[in-house]
Amino acid sequence: MKYISAWDFILVPLYLFLAFVVARATQNNKLQSDPDYKYYLSGLFAKLFGGLGLAFVYTFYYNGGDTIEFWRDCMVYNSLMFHDFACWLRIMGGSTDLLWFWCFDPYETGIPYYYNYDSRSHNVPRFLNLLTLFTASSYYALTILTAWASYPGVWRLFKVLSSEYPELRKQMAISVLFVPSVFFWGSGVMKDTLTFSAACWFTVGMYKIVLKRNAVFGYIIVVILSTYVMISIRPYIFVALMPGVVIWVLFNQLKRVDNKVVKFLIAPIIGLTALGIIAFVMSRTSSSLGDYGSMDQVLNKAVATQQDLKRDAYKGNSFDIGTFDASIGGILSKLPAAVWAGLFRPTFLDVNNIVMLISAIENTILLFFFLRVFFRAGPMGFFRSLSAEPTALFAMTFAIFFAFSVGLTTANFGSLVRYKIPSVPFFLAGLYITEYLHRKNKLEGLQKEQDKLESAKAAAGFTNRPKTGSI
């Protein structure tokens, strides 16, 4: 009960009620003109209760953790705002210079935990700081506001996928809004909430700018801010997302070419253009990406991180995909094991606590769905359907690459279940789209065969002409 105050009994029900009223009004106003809004209220409350569920797990089951430290640092920065506003502006602007650390007073403001310890973690309370003005120091109220504020990005991603595939509206809602691990780990006062929301906004922004050309200036700002959030907290998410988005955008342009010969000729050019754009963006942002700014740094970081997470402190909750060296060959040798871990572990064989059990159930369902889609379509049909649709190709490219990155560099199940959540909605959406395309192609093939058969019958004189004769 040490994290609960009297304000929680006032603010938590108040904010839940306000969220319900606002969301219900929004849904009612939009629903007649936009069927997507059928899922608006339920999607928001999945996030709100997911965030509260995570808060309860960390306060009553784990008795603390990163989310509590983020909340405490938010309180420190909130106090600093009123204690020394100029210093607060410097720190909120991104400065981590030790000079400004002396602005904190143990008695007046408190001392932040992450300011000197971990600059990337320090960015979480920095980004959430203004929300604390409306929480009266309540951790649970901050959780609700964080979940609520992060929902628009997730909702917009669902809207993009639904607009591309209105026939799959329900499936896209399941993929983006209702996967339990995603709305649980991606809704609390955590890094994952901010980075997943930023990844959603980045995807939406690129889609609107390049493919739809809607409100270009506004979405350029969205892309810049979402990139900044990802790079500030978890740069590897941007590194994993960027290639998939470039492929998505360029191959969407290729899809619009009707002439098959022209399409065949320009496909290599588009592929090379994609590589050039990716290389240019990565080179321009390398100074901000830190350990992810070059291939050598990425390889060394992967080995160092994986070895660190295998140390004794994590025994009992760790796994091992095997030792590898910091070379492209060494990394690629672990591709199957890393992707398997990033997508489908922990399994029932790995479970040693209730949190892992819930994750194992979800992973098993996801695995069976993947196997169903893959074997029903067959290897050739699966990859043919996947490669024929830019959105499915983008979703799978990002999901597989991200799962590979997480599975390679994470040897701890507690971290794995959180780190993997950006890949899950895209992987599931990619599977739904691939299954839909395969079924559609199969039906079109059957229809063509039927049309040929009818044409052959007609040519042979076997038409279904009405019988004639005397009465």
Structure described in brief:
This protein has 471 residues and is mainly α. It has 20 helices and no strands.
Describe this structure in words.
The chain has 20 helices and no strands. The chain has helices spanning 8-30, 40-61, 66-83, 85-92, 98-101, 119-128, 139-164, 169-177, 180-185, 191-212, 216-233, 235-255, 260-289, 295-309, 328-332, 335-344, 354-388, 390-409, 413-419, 423-459. Among the domains are: 8-145, no CATH class; 296-448, no CATH class. Helix 12 (235-255) packs antiparallel against helix 18 (390-409) and helix 18 (390-409) packs antiparallel against helix 20. The chain is mainly α and 471 residues long. The protein is globular. 73% of the residues lie in helices and 0% in strands.
Q: Helices, strands, pairings?
A:
Layout: H1 8-30, H2 40-61, H3 66-83, H4 85-92, H5 98-101, H6 119-128, H7 139-164, H8 169-177, H9 180-185, H10 191-212, H11 216-233, H12 235-255, H13 260-289, H14 295-309, H15 328-332, H16 335-344, H17 354-388, H18 390-409, H19 413-419, H20 423-459
Helix pairs in contact: 1-2, 1-7, 2-7, 3-4, 3-6, 7-8, 7-10, 8-20, 10-11, 10-12, 11-12, 12-13, 12-18, 16-18, 17-20, 18-20
Keywords:
single chain, 471 residues, mainly alpha, 73% helix
Distance between the termini: 94 Å
* Element-by-element helix/strand order: HHHHHHHHHHHHHHHHHHHH
Beta-strand percent range: under 5%
Structural class: mainly alpha
Mean pLDDT, rounded to whole units? 84
Unreliable sequence segments: none
Residue share in helix = over 70%
Q: How many distinct beta strands?
A: 0
The biggest sheet, with number of strands, parallel, antiparallel or mixed sense and barrel status, is: none
Shape: globular
What does the radius of gyration come to? 25 Å
DSSP summary: helix tally: 20
